[in-house]
Amino acid sequence: MKAVQVSKAGGDFEIVDRSIPEPGRGQVRIKVEACGICHSDALVKEGMWPGLQYPRVPGHEIAGRIDKVGADVMLWKTGQRVGVGWHGGHCFVCDPCRRGDFVHCQNQKITGITFDGGYQEYVVVPAEAVALIPDDLPAAEAAPLMCAGITVFNALRHSIAQAGDLVAVQGLGGLGHLGIQYARQMGFRTVAIGRGPDKQPLATKLGAHDYIDTNSVAPAEALQKLGGARVALATAPDSKSISALIDGIAPYGELLVVGAGFEPLTITPLQLIPGSRVVKGWASGTAKDSEDTLRFSSLSGVRPMIEKYPLEKAAAGYQQMITGKARFRVVLTMGS
Fold first, then answer.
1. What is the Cα 263 distance to its own chain's centre?
2. In terms of CATH architecture, what is 2-147+285-333?
3. The pTM is what?
4. What pLDDT shows up at residue 336?
C-alpha cells in the first residue's frame, strides 16, 4: 500500500510503499477512503509531541470501510462505513476509565501519534476508537467531522446554553464554520465573530443571525448590546481575540475554548467575579461522541467546506492548511 510518513521531527512528507498491516486482538483494519488534514498534524510534522516515535504516519480524521477484524472484536464487521478521530482508544483500567470518562484516560491512545494514522491506504486501529458513519455522508465530508466536527459539536451540546440562548462563535475557519452551523441547528441565537466585513456573507450563509466585525467594533461591547452571550465558543487560536470576549458574556455565562493556542489568556479576576462567569476548555470526545456528531450532521445538513487532494499530494495539502489558505478543511482522498 501507499503511505505518507514523516521520518524525523521537521522532516518532509515521504511517499513510501508499506505492507498492508494485519489487525491484532481487539483491532480492526480500515480501508481508508478519505483523511482530513488537521492543524494538529503539525505536532507530528514538527516533532512537538513528547516521546513521539518516528517514522510516523499522521492523520486523525479518517473515513473508510472496515476491511478486516481481529480476534475478540464483537461490535464491528467487514464492509461497515466507519471513521476514526483524535481519540484512538483507552485502557479501561485507569481511574477515569473506571468512571466511564474515557476521553480523559490516563493512557489514552491518539490516532496518528500513538500509532500510525490515516495518511495511508489502510490503517489498523483499536476497536473502541471506531465510529459508524451514516450512509448519506460521503467519506470526504465525514472525515473532517471526526475532529473539527466533534470538537465544536460536543462542546456546544455540553455547554450551559439552551435553545433560544445567544451563542457567539469566534472565528470562521476550520472549526468556526462548523460551529456556526451546529449552533444554528441546535436552536441557539447564533452570532458569528470575525475580522473584516467581507466575512459577513459567509457567516449569514452558514446560519448566523448576527455578525460582529472586530475591525469596526469591540466584540464585548457588541455582544452586550445584543444582551450578552450565554456561551462564547472560541475556535480561533488567538489568545488576544479570545480574551477580548470575556466582558461580552452574560452573568453565569461561559467562555468555552476549543481553539488550541500556546499564548496565555489575559483575563482578570474582576472580569470573572461580578458576572459569575466561567472559562473552560473542552476536549473532543470518544468514538461514540463522533457517532453522535455524524448522526446530527446527517439529520441537520451540517457539512464541512472542503478542498480535496489525492494522497500523493499530501505535502501540498498540508501546506495549504498550515498557511491558512484552505477554505476550510483539507481532505486527502484515496481514489476509487
1. 20
2. Alpha-Beta Complex (3.90)
3. 0.97
4. 53
